[in-house]
Structure to design on (382 residues):
């Protein structure tokens, strides 16, 4: 059915074609949603203003304050630099390490991947892309019968492209990620990642890959017709950031004018919380549809081959079918989903608690102290 609809829309007026693309997305999502029951996303309380400018605030509960204070002690070992806690759409807790404050821009590392998911969602909303069709990657269409040409945007969003990519950071000679970010691939990261060989049939094997996100970002660049970094940045600002009150965002681009969606976006903790609120509120901001209907559901539906760890460019705390335990910790609800980056960067979203916890830090060792810190914050406001 989707093949027929996709072909037909090119013969239809733009608005009707756009509606059919969105209907196709919803149709496929309806079939997929039976694989997991998701906690409903809470609406913004009618009495709480949206944080278009300043965040509405509420008193910090004493237990939460104690949990925040502990994060910034040597005993914590969480590496915390900045934490913001939002519940019910209000800022209820905030704390920074010495040298950091509410105006500090923090690097995303891989949290930028979740922002890339939002950018693709905007194109879906506008009927410019069908994620269930092969991705339009020039490198995969330069020769006849390139097997990579069958990879869909959906395969990429779920980290199931089947492409080889060594997501390691210990040896620059063997690390695809280091070669892409700092080596031979740095000038055109999407092209570098797209050049890897197919080692699994698309959609059959889950493997986390920063290269995958930069392929997606290069596809976005081509769809929006960006011929400069300024063009791409304007799209990000006008279609996403400004519409949800984000004013501090500084994205980075490679020499091919592609947003480095795998790793490089800088924002304040409060603006990272705004991004979290957009997803907690089902892609709607103050009555305006920023993301298409069910796009947030798309993000938090578990990718089966990830065994509960991953949705679509968001990490999960779902039950691992092998262990029958949450993949991260039993101390955080299993409906939680999160943008997560290297070194302790997290935007934790918990629909069942109407809760967002933004943690920005420097934790490059044992992740257990960070997990404990996040869990303690969640538990303090039950």
């Amino acid at each position: 059915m989707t093949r027929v609809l996709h072909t037909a829309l090119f013969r239809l007026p733009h608005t009707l074609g756009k509606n059919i693309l969105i209907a196709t997305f919803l149709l496929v999502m309806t079939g997929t949603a039976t694989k997991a029951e998701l906690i409903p996303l809470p609406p913004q309380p009618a009495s709480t203003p949206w944080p278009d400018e300043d965040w509405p605030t509420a008193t910090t509960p004493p237990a939460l304050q104690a949990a925040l204070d502990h994060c910034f002690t040597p005993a914590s070992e969480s590496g915390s630099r900045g934490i913001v806690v939002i519940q019910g759409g209000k800022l209820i807790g905030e704390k920074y390490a010495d040298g950091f404050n509410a105006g500090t821009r923090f690097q995303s590392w891989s949290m930028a991947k979740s922002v890339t998911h939002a950018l693709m969602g905007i194109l879906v909303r506008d009927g410019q892309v069908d994620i269930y069709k092969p991705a339009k990657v020039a490198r995969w269409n330069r020769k006849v019968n390139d097997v990579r040409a069958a990879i869909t945007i959906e395969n990429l969003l779920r980290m199931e492209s089947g492409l080889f990519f060594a997501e390691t950071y210990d040896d620059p000679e063997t690390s695809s990620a280091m070669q892409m970010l700092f080596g031979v691939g740095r000038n055109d990261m999407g092209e570098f990642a797209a050049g890897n060989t197919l080692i699994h049939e698309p959609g059959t094997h889950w493997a986390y890959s920063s290269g995958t996100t930069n392929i997606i970002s290069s596809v976005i660049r081509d769809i929006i017709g960006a011929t400069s970094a300024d063009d791409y940045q304007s799209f990000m600002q006008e279609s996403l950031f400004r519409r949800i009150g984000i004013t501090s965002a500084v994205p980075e681009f490679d020499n091919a004018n592609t947003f480095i969606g795998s790793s490089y976006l800088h924002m304040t903790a409060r603006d990272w919380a705004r991004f979290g609120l957009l997803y907690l509120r089902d892609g709607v901001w103050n009555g305006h549809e920023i993301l298409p209907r069910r796009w947030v559901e798309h993000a938090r539906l578990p990718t089966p081959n990830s065994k509960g760890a991953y949705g679509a460019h968001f990490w999960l705390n779902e039950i691992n079918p092998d262990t029958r335990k949450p993949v991260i910790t039993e101390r955080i609800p299993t409906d939680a989903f999160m943008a997560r980056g290297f070194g302790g960067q997290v935007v934790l979203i918990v629909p069942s608690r109407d809760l967002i916890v933004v943690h920005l830090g420097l934790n490059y060792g044992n992740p257990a102290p960070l997990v404990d810190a996040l869990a303690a914050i969640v538990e303090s406001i039950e």
